[in-house]
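input
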Amino acid sequence: MESGRFLWNVWLNDPRNEEFMRLYQSKPEGTRIKLEMHLMQPFRLMDEITQEWDFDTASVSVYQYTSFLVRRFFLMSAALRVSIAHN
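output
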């Protein structure tokens, strides 16, 4: 998660993001904390996966990974078709 926090600080302090930084600093501390928690969630999940999951004893096969990917592809393509048809 340290890499996520580092990248957030780099982005936040970049001169090109000066307008966002002013807006960010004008918000209450609780709001800023909530935003950071939301932004750091993917990094927390990656840390949890790499540190706590035991991949050596996992019984997940290549076929299961493929089924997850294919299912997601069909859901996304169905949503895209509905969106295009609706417009």
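quick obs: The chain has a mean pLDDT of 81.
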